[in-house]
Design a protein that fits this description.
mainly alpha; globular
């Protein structure tokens, strides 16, 4: 049984994006399949996903934060400045040029842009021969800062579009991200040498991917009827914005690395870290805080869940194919 779970975990980790897309399509045609994923259940699932991230953190990762403060500071500042501003420019900004962007798209993509880095970015950094320690450091730092930074950025950039409960968002992120990550870290710290604990760690990715699929499925179930009424044009507009936001994030992140004369490995890592967001968190926040005032805001978030994994895999493969060197872990 354990070997089966191990193989399933490896398969789901390898084909995460395609599995998420398959679940989304299935839910679109069978909308009641994940109707149970909403509210507290949805938040608990995200908390479990963040717990699995915490279980991968070690004391060495904390030492990376202390030993490379300048690198982490540059990367985290880029994360929380470039992506929110790109999101604002693609939605609110183009409005000044006479391009009308629907409010749900504005709120959803700004929410995605203001979230911390995605957990799968660490895997992508390894695949592209990037600086994995730098990647883990950036993801950890942005996740720790998210309870304060994300609500403030959303309030600043989207406050004119929809009422933002910054305090409620702070508490929600604190409970569903920071607390589970902290619990996972200390569990790994105290029980990391235990053989049974290590066996459990090895199969956690499978449950993490299943959890993300449940969140995306729950969103599709909740907005299914409204999405149908909006039509194909709305979906294509959302995808265009998600694609542009994600792609510009990769480009901007790489440009920051070049500007600060980072190594090739670090340039690749900061590109992926900046471009890939924790869209699962954005999806839960949209469902929790904008369900009544802007229900379709979850669509850009849910679509980002799938697309960021696909684009990250494509970019990592392209980076890796550019040279034949071994994965670089250094500065």
């Amino acid at each position: 049984m354990y070997n089966l779970l191990l193989r399933a975990s490896h398969w789901l980790s390898t084909y995460t994006s395609w599995f998420i897309i398959a679940v989304a399509l299935l839910t679109y045609f069978v909308p009641g399949l994940f109707s149970w994923v909403h509210g507290t259940t949805q938040s608990c699932i995200l908390g479990f996903i963040m717990l699995t991230m915490g279980l991968t953190l070690t004391m060495q990762d904390m030492k990376v934060l202390a030993a490379r403060p300048w690198d982490i500071l540059i990367g985290t500042c880029a994360q929380f400045s470039l992506m929110p501003l790109i999101a604002w420019s693609l939605t609110v900004g183009v409005g000044y040029l006479g391009v009308a962007i629907p409010k749900p798209v504005i709120v959803g993509i700004i929410l995605v842009g203001c979230c911390p880095g995605g957990v799968s970015s660490n895997i992508m950094s390894y695949l592209c021969r990037g600086d994995v320690a730098f990647s883990v450091g950036m993801t950890t730092a942005s996740t720790l800062l998210a309870p304060v930074v994300t609500p403030l950025l959303v309030l600043w950039l989207a406050g004119e579009q929809v009422e933002v409960d910054a305090l409620g968002m702070f508490l929600n992120i604190l409970i569903v991200t920071l607390m589970p990550v902290t619990i996972g870290f200390f569990a790994n710290l105290f029980y990391g040498g235990n053989a049974r604990f290590k066996r459990a760690q090895a199969v956690m990715p499978a449950f993490s991917v299943l959890g993300l699929a449940c969140i995306v499925g729950g969103v599709i179930s909740a907005v299914h009827d409204k999405l149908l009424s909006e039509g194909v044009a709305f979906f294509l507009m959302v995808f265009a914005v998600v694609l542009a936001h994600n792609s510009l994030g990769y480009l901007a992140g790489y440009s920051v690395g070049r500007m600060f004369r980072f190594s090739k490995a670090k340039n690749r890592t900061i590109s992926i870290e900046v471009g890939m967001q924790n869209a699962g968190l954005a999806t839960v926040l949209a469902s929790t805080f904008f369900a009544a005032t802007c229900p379709l805001a979850v669509i850009p978030c849910a679509l980002s869940c799938a697309w960021h994994s696909i684009s990250g895999t494509i970019l990592a493969t392209w980076f890796r194919n550019r040279d034949g060197k071994e994965p670089s872990q250094g500065n």
